[in-house]
Specification:
Blueprint (H helix, E strand, L loop, with lengths): L1 E10 L2 E11 L4 E5 L6 H8 L6 E7 L2 E2 L5 H7 L1 E4 L11 H7 L8 H11 L1 H5 L10 H13 L5 E5 L7 H16 L3 E6 L2 H7 L2 E6 L2 E7 H6 L1 H6 L4
Parallel strand pairs: 3-8, 3-9, 6-7, 7-8
Antiparallel strand pairs: 1-2, 1-4, 4-5, 9-10
This protein binds adenosine-5'-triphosphate and magnesium ion (MG).
């Protein structure tokens, strides 16, 4: 579904991602894990069309999307839950969800049912101003809004950052449920244990380069992962 090959990305004149190749097949949950500043956000923003200084190839459903404008990539079916959530704080929860529909009116009721069953708290707070909700609720809203477009691939940039352990568990449970429902997911995380528990396969990004890749359960037992990320 997603095939990234030999991607190089620069900010201004400084290259921050080097020769990155990664693939996500239909129905897979894949994680890209890496510490602060390793280039996770830079990579997803490039995939979503938000960074112009990149070379290489990003194919989505067989089509080259590198260089396409963000709204077109979104229309192709790739939805990003950004690191800063970017919900509309003055609007209600319900209005935020309606904004996520992106023209797919026929999917509205089905997707609204799905997001309210995944996140009942959003249903309870449909009329509440989004900016007055807790960080965890806002993260759920950001995920729910991205789902409203009925995406083919959901990309999440560190959805667990800043959440309490209880809410982290809830976010990961909802991703697991979405994966069981057949949704294809690319998850960027620093929460290595939870990410590897959830995913089929993973890639490890350090200083802008993929240093390890493999099945999640193999990565979990890899000495480098255990030492650098799991505190063994
Ligand atoms: N707009 C920008 N201009 C210049 N450099 C940038 C810009 N955004 C990010 N960088 C640099 O690119 C590198 C990768 O940053 P990026 O935000 O992609 O990492 P990250 O893995 O998402 O980190 P975090 O886990 O903290 O979110 C860092 O060295 C960062 O300083
Ligand atoms: Mg980031």
């Amino acid at each position: 579904m997603l095939e990234i090959s030999h991607l190089n990305i620069s900010h201004d004149h400084l290259q921050v991602v080097w020769d990155l190749s990664l693939s996500v097949k239909e129905g897979e949950i894949v994680t890209l894990i890496g510490p602060n500043g390793s280039g996770k956000t830079t990579t997803v923003e490039t995939i979503a069309g938000l960074n112009k200084k990149a070379s290489g190839s990003v194919r989505f459903l067989g089509k080259e999307i590198l260089g396409m404008p963000p709204h077109q990539i979104f229309k192709e079916g790739l939805a990003l839950v950004p690191e800063r959530r970017e919900i509309f704080s003055k609007m209600s929860v319900g209005e935020n969800l309606q904004l996520g529909i992106a023209g797919k009116e026929n999917a509205r009721d089905r997707m609204l049912d799905l997001v309210y069953s995944l996140f009942p708290v959003l249903h309870e707070r449909e009329k509440q101003q989004a900016g007055t909700m807790s960080g965890g609720e806002q993260q759920m809203l950001a995920i729910a809004r991205a789902l409203m477009s009925d995406p083919k691939l959901l990309v999440l940039d560190e959805p667990s950052t800043g959440l309490s352990p209880l809410l982290v568990a809830q976010v990961f449970r909802s991703l697991e449920q979405l994966g069981r429902g057949g949704l294809t997911i690319l998850l960027l995380e620093q929460n290595v244990r939870n990410a590897l528990d959830l995913c089929n396969r993973g890639y490890v990004l350090e200083n802008g380069r993929i240093v390890l890749e493999g099945k999640a359960k193999d990565l979990m037992h890899h000495p480098h992962i255990q030492k650098a990320y799991l505190g063994f």
